[in-house]
Batch of 4 targets.
Target 1
Amino acid sequence: MKIMLVSVLVFLAGNGTLVRASESALTSDGRTPVLVELFTSEGCSSCPPADSLLQKLDQQPIAGEEMIVLSEHVDYWNHIGWKDPYSARSYSDRQSAYARRLEDEVYTPQMVVDGTSAFVGSDATLADKAFAKALTRPKIVVRLSSVSSGTANLLQAHVETGVLQESFGLRDADLYVAVALNHAESQVSGGENSGRRLSHTAVVKSITKVGRLRRGQSFAQDVQLKLDPGTDLGNLRLIAFVQEPGQGRVIGATEQAVGSAVAKKN
């Protein structure tokens, strides 16, 4: 499936325009959003346990936290007998940027929590420690709304944030929108997982930086995403997140199931 950002409208508002001071970055049921990125590959025999852990996290098993998960398939395993159909160089590059920032190595499976903690992606103990740490950090409001399916296979959405307060310690921050498959499977016929049927959740198809949020300002943006004919909207989710420039800490995130949003809109 090919997804392309075809148009962007940007509106910058002043302090408090989009979000009242009384509003919170917590979800509607009081949970703190946490972005969990798993760098994985179908060519890696150590990755399926991490894929399974990510699926469990997607079921929201931790009280007080909303796990917003992304499965990013790297391409550097593709030479050993199996080309991962969900892999892309851009995810390998994103992982390498984290490795430089966090002074870590590049390996699979690797889990990165809120852009600040990296560890072996199947290690549930280290994951729990990272999630507990994430609860202590302030988060900015991020919202996705007006998700609809237009003509000519266009997916439309609106993303907005609260005000980037001085307390975050950032002069500015980057806003990203990701598109992911809710579920994907492969019957692997080569490489280290040959003969296995692998299952994945939140498989990223694209991550697009759509703008920059300035200190003291809120941000709003309309996006249109072009989908291939026949794309199953019911198997898509949108994720928006705010990240420190240079691929640093994530200070806010949200997600929206496309199928249910489009059905409600229509």
Target 2
Amino acid sequence: MNGQSGDDVAVRTQRPDRVAGVALVCAALLFFSAMNVAFAQDATKSAPSPVAPGDLTKPVFDTTKPVYDPGSGLDKAASTMVAEVEGRPITLGEVGDAIKSLPPAMSQLPFETLYPGVLDQLVNQEALVIRAQNLGIDEDPVVRRRLRAAADHVLSDEYLRREGSKGITEAALLERYKRDIEGKPGAEEVHARIIMVPAENEAADLIAEIKGGADFATVARRASKDTTAPGGGDLGFVTREGLNPEMGAVIFASPEGQLVPYPVRSIGNWFVVKVEERRRRPTPGFASVREQLSHTLLQEAATHLAQGATEGMKVRHFDLLGQEVGDYARPGR
């Protein structure tokens, strides 16, 4: 048998049966797996998504719950210490507060851009506070009065924000949007160009040059001291709210395609102004004005709260000599 043992021959002769058996088992497993997948697919098709609302005619989110919960925006990492001056910590929350107090154009910059400079400022400020306290400045009656006024201002503002936000819901925001914005034309925009120079006579000479046929953009690149000079004085499309009062009044009163025939005085300089074209923005969608609407509602609520702040409280008034004034009429009442 060519040197092969009986056991070896037995193994070889049994192997095809074993292979066939294994193949049969595999085929069965594949069949049942396929059946399970099919059943799962059918179940998926027939059953609703577990995250779908029971009634799709109703809003997915709660429109009546206040959307400005004072605690919802608290940063859990606010207490993280990011610097220390003479043992006094500076926290991430303080950095965030400082960033929020910046002008909008700056506060919207990326956090990683603002963080180093803001932190340095807070470190320097803390060092100055320590030096002031070492000199006893914090014990000065005038300083103590100002500190109390600052603390009172923070507390009153926070009260107005928290109480005023209780009525700001998605339903209230949507109602205000439908009342004030939906279906109405968007803001008017004007495409304008400017040339800024320090003297009125210089602006008048440039107006005469442009009236004589010179290209406005070319003159702007040569003579304007404004940051728009490289672009030929192009302001792009602007709204009236985006301009200071002097420039807004002139630009939005000027005809389309016309050079303003006189120099315009604004922010300590003189301007040559040309209106290129006008257009209206489309009606803004709810999402784009949601923050603006919430700010409006909060301001209205704060005004109402401030007007009724003393209700139920005993208030006494005194004249400049310290004598109580019996019948005191509050302004506007």
Target 3
Amino acid sequence: MSSPDLFVVCKNCQAEVSPYITECPYCGTRLRKRAPRIERPDAPPKPPKRGPRVGGRRSSGPTSASKPKASKPGAGRLGGLRSGEIAGVRGDEHGRPYATIVLVGLSLGLWLTLPFVPLNDLTIRTLGYEVWFYLAASLLNTGIGAQFAASVGIGLFGWLIERRRGPLAVIALFLLCGPAAIAIALAVDSGSLVIGSHGAALGLLCAWVVPVLLARSRGEDTGEADLLGVLVIAAVLLCIPLLSQGSALAGLVGAAIGAIAGLLFATLERSRV
């Protein structure tokens, strides 16, 4: 092996530069496309490349069939569904429950504005109100105890549902068990005083607990907490209309809608197993 030159001469500025650079450091002239390879004398020789056998004979070089297909940058495959997830609705067990945080924040924030806005102005008595009245009535309660209990229910069971089924499931359940349940209660008993977020809290509770109860009835270990605390929270939420001006019918309708959603979740989980 012949030894490389100690230097080369730039054709532009006639300066002596290293033979292992691509551009002249003095004038910036391009000397070569790429730097020459530095070979070590103690490096072992590389074996010749051989392609696959073609017709009983081995080809001298690699063919297009032997080249591995390059994957597209950034392309990846999602892992399998975790326990309790359904296809198309995926939660994040380690992520933040943003939808639940927004709902609880709206509920508490709107309740803090009650000293400036009379509660009777946000109370619904007929079906002729605008949509935002139904949303406001689904986030408010009369009394700090009722507001605190309903907010805890929405925050706890909204978080449990969101970490398993995603934020869209929480938002859809809140709209169905809150504003929609209030509208159904008004259609059944027009002229009654309808307000309270306990219906949305009961709906989220039932949507979470129904699949757990069905799984335990089949002898499956779900790994969830003791249901005694869930029973206590449900009893407190059911008692809110007795201690405040909330609608008992709206709470029962919200619980029924949540139970139907829980049955749907359980059916979808069983169908994919």
Target 4
Amino acid sequence: MPRNAEVIRQWSILRDLESSRRVTIDQLARRTGVTTRTIRRDLEALQTSGFPLYDEVIDGKRYWTLEAKAFRRLDDTGFTLGELSALYFSRTLVECLAATPFQHDVASAFDKLAGALTPGMRRFLDQLPLVIQAKGVAAAEHAEYADTKWQRERMARLLDATLHQRRATMKYFSMSSAREKEYLIEPYRLIYSAGAMYLLAFVPEYKELRTFSLDRIRSVSLLEERFTPTEVPDAVFAHSLGVNEGPPERIEIAFEPRIAPYIRERQWHPSQTQTDRKDGGLLLTLDVCNDWALRSWILSFGPLARVLKPATLAGQIKDEIDRASARYAVE
């Protein structure tokens, strides 16, 4: 069984129990596509974690119910069990997006919310996969992302498909081909980076994971067909300065003295190391993939940055500079 598949199913069971007054094991088995024996094990595991589940016999049928008002401290917060669980589940995203002066306060607020959950419930929620991930800090000008009705609906559908492992069809405008195409996808994760939202999805047609910009998704339709996800790294795009996947390379860049203080005060990537140069400049070493995000970042420093290694990257940067220079040639 793929990692997290059991936890996702149990999360679905909790949501079904909360949205329904009562359900039978047979109903839960049909909705999740597993055997009744598996559902019984799931219910027992959830009870052991501290979720207030109980069964009762009505007209000869045994039903299961989730008692959402079971905890005094939960009542004190004013949240339902589902709301509180969802908040706790999203803490990684919110803490990542919070501006630095508020990070401590945000973490403290989530610790107080977590106090309304039992230790077993917290352990369960901590196992849930990151269906939403933030990479970097949100830019101020994009603070109102997903403010339109269609954006919110699109996000909700993709979250539903990701969390419940539902296949979907999607019409998408490709910038590379300059045309609209329809895809059958298996949504894995939503990633917020550089003021935009991206979808990481497996495309059966190509048998590979691909990244799609939500801004270029024209329509999304969810299917009843479920999929079994393959393993996905906890940190998507871990080796890129942008939103790309690829093997990391050792990159060495020499920065001129006048830009060195600016480079020193920032963390550009978790892999970075810095070495002061005798001339007052700085040598920055990164273990990242050679993609357009890296090359455009280096080019943004113009003559103040020089790639030392690898030679292939240095050649690519030189070619870009030569082509840019040619566009400004005096006729």
